[in-house]
Amino acid sequence: MSMLQACLVLSSLLFCVGLAGALARSNTILVLLGIELMLNAANLNFIAFWRYGPHPGAGTGVIFVLFAIAVAAAEAAVGLALVIAVHRHRKSVRLQDANSLKG
Amino acid sequence: MSVVATDSFLERAPLLFRDWIVGHFPVALQWLVHHLLTITAILTVFGLFFAFTTIAERKLLARLQNRLGPNRSGLPWFRTLKLWGLTQPFADAIKAITKEDIVPAVADQVLHFLAPVVIVAFSLLGFAVLPFGRYLIPVELDAAILYFFAAGTATELAIFMAGWGSRNKYSLLAAMRALAQLISYELPLILSVVPVVLVTGTLSTRDIALAQGGWTWGVLPHWHVFTPWGFAGFLIFLVAALAESNRSPFDLPEAESELIAGHLTEYSGFKYALFFMAEYFGLTALSGLGITVFLGGWQAPCAFLEFIPSWLWFMGKLAGMIVFFIWIRGTLLRLRIDQLTRLAWQFLVPLALLNLGNAAFWALTSGWTGPLALARWAISAAIVIVPFFLLGRRLTAGYAPRTYRYAA
Amino acid sequence: MSFALLLIALVLLGSAAAAMLSRNLIHSALLLTGAWAGIAAFYLWAGAEFVAFAQVLVYVGAVSMVVLFAVLLTRQGATAAPVEFDSYKRVVGSIITAGGVGGVLLGAIFGTPLDVPAAPSPAALTVRQLGLQLMGPYAAALLIVGVILTVALLGAIVIAAVDKPEDPAP
Predict the structure, then answer these.
(1) Which of C5, C121, C127 is nearest to C54 (CA)?
(2) CB contact under 8 A, A34 and C20
(3) CA of C126, closest CA in chain B: separation in Å?
(4) What is the pLDDT of residues B7-51, one digit of tens each?
(5) Which of B28, B162, C85, C108 could serve as B263's disulfide partner, Cβ 3.0–4.6 Å?
């Protein structure tokens, strides 16, 4: 198993952990955290391909990860604000309870 | 950076000592010994610095409040030797270690234990990238400034762990306050350093310190604090650093008159001491960063004072900063939480952003000479001072001058 | 297979799995912060210093704080009631789904001939090079990310704010 493959295996395992968590839990915050984990697993891939790819001199992988981190931060902020807003209306953080568009 | 033999002996002394010790070990182990020695040196120097900061703080605060402060402790078996109470921190340490360690029965045992460990470990990490002298920099990193701020983020988590893990209302309130405060002030803290990065064009602390070398006419140092944007940045940095290290007047998380001791309420003995240690380490590291970034790092203020080794200059400036912080603690009153966050978001962040533009102006006009240099200074100063007064007036509008109804 | 990578993988996967299994929301959030720090350690190991520090600064410093705030603001009642799993059916279903996805991914990884020339450790990307690239070819993307972040910040404030008349000035 080459180093690149090892990194890819690590990232896919992390992705699966995030996926299982996001599907199994019903707490909105935990679902969001599972999605964050999946995003991070994708970032691991970028770094692995940058490091072991044919052109490590080009910083494309690194720059893509930087942008992904920025977008993930925005996503987390908006997502958690939504969680708080839903909790205020429904008094619940379960995903099943947020089932109508009218607050 | 290799040591140049033309430097004075004192300048090279720490390095020569290190190489002498490392030379006694087999070649395979030398890198390990090298790093272990660096770590030991930092722990020893800043451990002692912490100890004497506590006694200096107690004595200075006492003087500011017109009392004497601790002056009794001396040495056992040497009763005749009066030491002005300078051995007080060691007595305190022995007391803290021998005290009973109480953990509340309902506390979250793991988090309650982890919080002091995490906070001390991470508050020490910041020291790794500070240039303590011309050749004394533990780790040379390309992105040192970023590393410094990244290392500091874990203290917020540790305070939260302490506050939540104690399962105590006061602790939890303190944790919420700490989170709000630290998030709010992280922004001006980082934004105040960004102008320096912009002008010097590097994130490495070594290069930032080097960039401030040289003097005009041999007496006026080229420190960043002596430029309009640097001065404004330094002031913002000072305020934000005070808030980041939970020092008075921003010590809301442990406001003893409101929250008993905040997140420290359920801690006793050595763990309590660890929190204090981490607080002082954090303050010292932030002061060190401020010195490196704004106050010229290890550079001497005048050309003819260069014979004093650079690490002595750094430690001297560090001591000066600490005394300044103690002075502020003895002078200013604690803020309310809404005043605190308002100060950060409505005043410091806009000013810091404007200051960033100011630094960009400074970097673009670096070619201006003669009378244009004066214009450069005037414009740069105006960019800082005018918004300062406008914002200040707008935010304090409606507050009449203070009247004293019951005092003369 | 280097020992350091194995260690990082163990810590990373362990804390991520524990976070997803924990019945205590705060523990979940803190364990996940540990997982994010582990990812930063992976970046350090791979030689991407700048990204590693950015990861710590953004995730350990900012996102974890927001998560903790959200947990505290949405707590049910005074006690920290454990967050139970919904039903065994759902848990088993999710594990089967994740296992299937993982199987497909692993099959793809091991089935693809990844005979990239093992590049000798690349010339480390300095911060200066990174900055020049960000400000040069990627300047438009940087601007767009800045706009996205600002919009997200404002949107989050608008969504989370309580719509009630502002109390009079202190």
Answers:
(1) C127
(2) yes
(3) 7
(4) 677 777 777 777 788 777 777 777 788 888 888 888 888 888 888
(5) B162
Give the pLDDT of residue A84.
84
CA C90 and chain centroid, separation: 24
Q: How far is CA A72 from CA A89, B302, B306, C51, C152, in A?
A: 26, 49, 49, 14, 11
Domain ranges of chain C: 1-77, 125-161
Residue linked to tokens 């003995």: B269
Element at B192 (helix H, strand E): helix B169-200
On whether any CB of chain A is under 8 Å from the CB of C61, the answer is: no
CA B142 to chain C, closest CA, distance in angstroms equals: 6
pLDDT tens-digit series, residues B142-186: 888 888 988 888 888 888 888 888 888 888 888 888 888 888 888
- Max Cα–Cα distance, chain A, nearest Å: 53
Q: Mean pLDDT, chain B, as a whole number?
A: 84
Token output for A63: 């720059």
The tokens describing A37, both together, are 């984990």
CA distance A27 to B216: 63
CATH architecture entry for A3-97:
Orthogonal Bundle (1.10)
Q: Is the Cβ–Cβ distance between C98 and A24 less than 8 Å?
A: no
Q: State whether residue C37 sits within 8 Å of chain A by CB.
A: no
Chain C residues touching residue A62 (CB < 8 angstroms): 48, 50-51, 125, 130
Query: What letter represents residue B249's amino acid?
Result: P
The structure tokens listed for A82 are: 């939504």
Is the C-alpha dihedral spanning B279, B285, B289, B292 positive or negative?
A: positive
Q: Which of C13, C29, C153 sits opposite A13 (nearest CB)?
A: C13
> In terms of DSSP H, where are the helices of B250-395?
256-259, 269-293, 310-331, 337-342, 349-364, 371-395
Domain ranges of chain B: 99-365
Residues B143, C26: C-beta atoms closer than 8 Å: no
Task: Give the angle subtended at the CA of A22 by the CAs of A19 and A26, to the nearest 5°.
Answer: 155
